[in-house]
Structure formats: C-alpha cells, structure tokens
Task: structure prediction
Amino acid sequence: MEGFEEIESVLYIAREISVYKIPPLRVNEGHRANDWGDLASPLWKGRLRVIENGRKAVLMFEDGQTGIVFARAEYDPLRPSVEAVLDSSRYFVVRVEEGGKKAYIGMGFTERSDSFDFNVALQDYTKRYKAALNPPSPTTETPSPHLPPGPKKDYSLKEGQTFTISIPGKSGKPGNNSNLLSSGPTGSGSGGGVPLLPPPPSGRQK
Result:
C-alpha cells in the first residue's frame, strides 16, 4: 500500500556500552572477555539501541551526542547475531554483516542490570517472532482445562421427565419424595412438596 510506513519501536536503550576488537574464535571453544586485552581501553564507546521495525530487529551502535552510527547488526532469532561470552554476564559478541562482509565485535555493559535488561528484550522479541511464524489456527478449539476429556454429555431433562430428591428423616413410602419440578400445593402438610421461598419484597410495597 502506498504511503504505508512500518512503525518503529525501541525495545531497549543502553546509554553507554563499550566495543572491543576481539581475536578469532578458537576451534571448539567459546568467546571469553578475558582474551580481549585491556577491557578498560575499548575500541569505541557510545549508545546502543535495539529497534524493531516491522518483522526485523536491529542493534544500532550510535554516538550518544550526534547519533552517528558506528555499526549496526540485524538480529534474526532463527540465526542469532548475539552470543554471550563464557566468563562474564556483562560481555557479548555481536556479528556485524554489511555488503556481504562479516565481522565480530565484542560488546560490554558497565552494569549487570543493563546486560540483564538487554537479554530480556531479545528474549521477548524472539518469543513474539516465533509466535508470528506459527499463529494458532482459527478453526482449532482449545479444550477447557476445567472439563474432562471425552464426548460431551446431554444432562438436560427431556419432555415429560422429572427427578426426585429424598429428604432426610422422611419415610421411604412412595409419595414422600418431593418432586422439585412439580407445581402442586406447597403447604406445610407432611406429604407436601418443598416450600418455595417468597420473592424478595418490591420497592413499591409499603
């Protein structure tokens, strides 16, 4: 549709993160932040924003003052571009791809709470992304958890059918069982039906 613009939403913002140049990954070993050299001297410092636009999410590494983009990395839940390191919860490795070229950079948060919120934002997006790929069928009925499985039973009374209830203390003689559906007299006699309570008083009665 012409003139249609996809809504852009910000999933996460970190005011300051550090970017590091990292060595190649060793065979059959994970990344370790301790191998990145002096963590107090990063390659770059700036802001991180995780943006969702339509069916895509992007990690934007930007200058906190000018907004100039240092790097960007698309996040695909089926092919994640973010990997946690083995020796810290505050550092990650991010795969950056542009023009057919691929590079890996290290990323570090100052506070563990920031890295936790970053993880939660990616997990929430991943759940929504996968749910959109497999939407529930409109024709599929979800059974109630309060009902036992099996075919439905019809407990309604058929025409002409009644049921009775035995009142404790009454004799077992026929006729002493009260028919709840009968419309007979409701007096106080020993053989009468269960008396019906009168309706609540109307506000018009005085």
